[in-house]
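Usage

Read records sequentially. Each one opens with the input sequence:
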Amino acid sequence: MIHGRRVPQNTAEYARWLAGEISRRYRDTWFTRDTTMFVAMALEGYADLLDSREATKLTFTVNAIDDSGHSSVIAAANNVEIAWAAYSAAVPKQTQGRLLLHQSARIIAQHPPEAGQK
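and closes with the structure output:
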């Protein structure tokens, strides 16, 4: 349980909680320190995969794209105001690469704007 409530086991939140619990409850008799670290890292990676899968079910997404072209979802919502708030909060922090606010496949906003856009 996380903070006194039950979290579905096939969610990113649960995978991150489990990674933290494994790291916190580390015992030499269960795993070596290196094994504990790798198990926690694998669970974090799995949580990221679940995050992206869960985000595809939502209408609006904010993606950060680094200079090498790797894209990661930093926020997702079904509410446009929440998506705009997440995008607006991320813009000042985006020093490299690009940010895109999507409604499904349609790009609503991007930072920095392409040439000719405001």
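Summary fields computed downstream for this record:
- The chain has three helices and four strands.
- Residues 12-54 form one domain.
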